[in-house]
């Protein structure tokens, strides 16, 4: 009888203690911002040319938590020059990216996906802090967004050309798929 009671108490204790089953995330704005900064996911600079840089004129603007009005961080106020530098950098990087094999590009995209999934809780917390979105909804948004990167990482392996039926019997139409331009991703 006493063994049954111990078993019941232990089970009740485990069921009332959710921290045994899942990681708990604090949404206290100051604590969360500090944790995100320490993890390297909250940056106040812009990423241009493979480096984190401040605005040329040193100007910043505040990012506030819409729920509390607290300042989460100050970020660089990038202008025309920084935008031009980012576009030039992306354009010059495009040549090296387009020389990678389809498999190498696929691996790069897959690594990006894996990093997003590994840090999905922190990314969701960041969305919650700066947009006021419920944490669970923000987590779904991160997972949904990452699924597109996963999809294109798989599709990158399958960049096949096509042979199109010609309208003239002495011609053959071949399609060679290759990168033609760069895209800009903003967050």
TrEMBL record:
Signal peptide: none annotated. Residues 52-177 form the Aldehyde dehydrogenase domain. It comes from the Eukaryota. GO terms for biological process: gamma-aminobutyric acid catabolic process. Keywords: Oxidoreductase. InterPro entries: Ald_DH/histidinol_DH, Ald_DH_N, Aldehyde_DH_dom, Aldehyde_DH_Superfamily. GO terms for molecular function: succinate-semialdehyde dehydrogenase (NAD+) activity. PANTHER family: SUCCINATE-SEMIALDEHYDE DEHYDROGENASE, MITOCHONDRIAL. This is Aldehyde dehydrogenase domain-containing protein. It comes from Asparagus officinalis.
């Amino acid at each position: 009888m006493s063994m049954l009671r111990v078993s019941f108490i232990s089970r009740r204790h485990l069921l009332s203690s959710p921290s045994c089953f899942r990681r708990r995330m604090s949404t206290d704005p100051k604590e969360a911002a500090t944790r995100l900064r320490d993890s390297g996911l909250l940056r106040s600079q812009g990423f241009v040319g493979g480096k984190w840089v401040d605005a040329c004129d040193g100007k910043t603007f505040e990012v506030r938590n819409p729920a509390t009005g607290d300042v989460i961080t100050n970020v660089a106020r990038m202008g025309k020059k920084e935008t031009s530098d980012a576009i030039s950098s992306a354009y010059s990087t495009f040549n090296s990216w387009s020389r990678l094999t389809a498999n190498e590009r696929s691996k790069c995209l897959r690594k990006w996906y894996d990093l997003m999934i590994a840090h999905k809780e922190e990314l969701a917390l960041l969305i919650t802090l700066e947009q006021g979105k419920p944490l669970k909804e923000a987590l779904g948004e991160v997972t949904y967004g990452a699924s597109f990167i996963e999809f294109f990482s798989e599709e990158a392996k399958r960049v096949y050309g096509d042979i199109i039926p010609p309208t003239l019997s002495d011609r053959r139409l071949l399609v060679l798929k290759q990168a033609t331009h760069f895209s800009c991703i903003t967050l």
